[in-house]
Design a protein that fits this description.
The chain is 26% helix and 18% strand. The chain has 174 residues and is α/β, with parallel strands linked by helices. It has a single domain, classed as Ribonuclease Inhibitor (Leucine-rich repeat, LRR (right-handed beta-alpha superhelix)), CATH 3.80.10.10. About 13% of the residues have low confidence.
Amino acid sequence: MEKLVAFISFLLLLQYYVISSSAMNQFNISTDQLALLSLKSQIIFGPFRFLDESWSPAMSVCHWVGVTCGSLHKRVKSLNLADMALNDRIPPDFGNLTFLVSVNLGSNSFRGNLPQEMAHLRRLKFLDLSFNSFRGDVPSWFGFLHELQFLHLRNNSFTGSLPSSFSNITNLEM
């Protein structure tokens, strides 16, 4: 009888773990979707309107144009919106895409300061922000992105010198 009670307790614990893990994963991909929809709401579209047509809440975020999800965690791991004639600002919610490894926003017309919340993108290895209109000081929070290997900032309106925190990015190659 004790073995049966122990077995049932184990099954209940296992069921709780599976349900809570599923709920957590659903919440996480929902978080990613909300962050991307926040980005979409900030964007003034150019002539192509790729995101306006393909980024629909009715469709899985992993099937959106420019979005790649990881096979293990089913979280957004790559965002490639280069050369889409997009402009406006990057919203603070962008920092909630914490599984991002690669971001390419190059050759658009994004402007303004980069949000401090992007410091939460600790898995980031590739970041291309070139050929936009970002301004202000080069953010010191880049120093928190320890995994960063490639950082492209050319052709923006950043001011000042590189922050000393860049010395924390030991994997930086370019």
